Structure formats: C-alpha cells, structure tokens
C-alpha cells in the first residue's frame, strides 16, 4: 500500500516550517493565480522566507513584475480611499500573531505600510481582514505585500506579494500623508533582531491609529522582539528595541484602537481543481463565525464592505461544520474545546473526532481547523498529534474548488 507523506500538509510542533499564505489577492506563482506560468508555480507558498534573507522580499517573486510573459499582470484594481479585504488560508495559524500589509511602487525596493494587525492575525483559515487604501495612495501599477510574525513556533517571517492596480479615488486626504507612513517592520532574517515566541509583535511604528487593528490575546506582550533591527536589502531598519528588551511600543498615538471584527469564513484548503471565481462569493462559505460580536455586513460593491449593524458582545457560532467548537470536552475525549476557553499547557494539541484539530496557545484554545483532505488524526489531547493518510479506493476521490475571493473583479 502506498502511503502519502504528510509533512507538506501539516508539519507540527517545534519543527513547523509553514502553514499560512495569502489567499486573496492571488500572490505571484500561486496555483490559483491565472497569470502564473505552470512551470513556475510554487506549491509551498506557506513556507517562510529563508532565514538568511536571501529570498526577501516576496520570496524573490517580485521579479515577475518585469516578466514579459505576463506573470506579473495585475490581479485586481483597488481605488484610493476604498475599503477592501485580503484573506489568509492554510493549515495552522500557530496561535495567530501580528501582520502588516504594504504597497510597493518600485517593484519591491521599498514598502509603505497601509495597515497593521497587532494580535490574533490570523486565527483561522479563510479569515478575511479589512483595510482601506489610503486616499492619497499613488495610482497605477503596485505590489501588495502581506507579512506575518507567528506567535507560536519557530521564529520566522512569512511574506507573500501580489500584483495590483491602484485606481483614482475621491474624498478628503488622510491626516497622515502616504509619504509619511512607516516602512515594514523586518525581523528574524539575521538582521540583528528576533521576535519572541509566545508574544504578539508590537510593531514599533504601526502607522496612523485609524489603520491599526489591535486584538491582543496575550496578557503580557512586553518584550515581543529583542535586538536592533537593521535594514535588509535596504528595506526597513527599525532600530533597537526599547530598553529592557520590551516590544517597542508604538510611537504613533492611540495605537490600541480596536476595530470591530468582520465575519470570517472557514474555507477548504485543498488545491483547486477550478479557480474560476463564483458569481456570488457570499454563497461559498461552509461555516461562519463571529469572533467577538455579531456583525451584519452589507456588500456595497464587489470588494467594498460597509458595516451596517453590530449587535451583542458574546461570541456566537453558526453552522454545523466540524470547524465549529461544539463542546468543552476533556483530555482524551476527542471533543472540541470552546475557542478562547482556558487551557493549561501551551502547545498541547487536540484532535477532534479524527477530522480536525486545535491547539493551546497563550493559555487559550484556538478555533478548530479542518485537517487536509485525505488525512486523519488520533482523537484526544496530546503534546504531539498523530496524522495519517486515509486509505481510499481508486476513483472515489474528488477535488474541491478553492474559495473564490470576496473582492474579485472580472
């Protein structure tokens, strides 16, 4: 009998090498990117950047912006001043962490941060994150970049980039000019500074308060990075962490503003057989979760979202997908633990019914996530998780299309 090697779908514990990627907009060389040459597709998009910084930025794929084959063709047009979303997909969130998104107009020579997400980024596969393109952002060809520092696991930096177009917009100019916005925070690339496991990175300069989302799940984030952050290939360079090795709390005012979380979706992570976006993306989710409040979202136009109402403050879940926490459970029971409920041992795994899993991170259980299609785990809680392939008869397998982007524009 032939067995499937699972290390490329779920690498666990301290040996984790990767598990989240930019799902939308489609990054360079992603299997879902219609512009990616077949011979150049990267089937390990979830891997972190090389520790020596050799493939920083963008895993080196920013060169596709100059590719005459069209590999760097724009995926989507966003108008200056408009509100949009990006999504993250993968198999393990490593407790969340902190993310930044940025735009580059010089093909990766420099990056300007347009939003920082401090804590809880991400907590589930298929999660959408809202942002606003600065009203004075230059128009034309641009490169969108997502950077992630995971909370639990090896000290790494994850980065994916996508080709986008910034269209003209309207409205008042923002209080902070585009040229005055910060550069990306860069660590864990042998540049003199390192993030601290179990902490959610507090960016030393996250940007204007209106472009910062803070949802810390760690009680004490002091000392979230140490050392002096030197520039990498001329990009960034944040200087030393504050005395005592603390996080480098923001020098921007009111950086602890909390944004109302949007509804997130649990999405299939199986490689897509058909990447053509559906006409109505709102029908594609398999289950819906509201993290901290019940939020009604009105679609203004494709990719433009406006919060209509927000009711209640208690966590709520809907749907019957196995990704929904349904019970408190006990050790060895194989039952799901309520997301956010206390747990005693960080790093502890919980296999739920053999089909999904969650992890203890910063004293709390994470949301439940589905295993990769064709795999199973041994139910119960343990310091390790036993993953194996499900034997199936020839001809019975099928591939499930990947979730279409919310702000897809034909």
From TrEMBL:
Protein keywords: Signal
Residue stretches of biased makeup (Low complexity): 311-323
Signal peptide start and end residues: 1-18
Keyword Signal attached: yes
Record organism: Oidiodendron maius (strain Zn)
Record has Membrane as a keyword: no
Domain of life: Eukaryota
Chain residue ranges for the region called Disordered: 236-287, 311-334
Protein name: Lytic polysaccharide monooxygenase
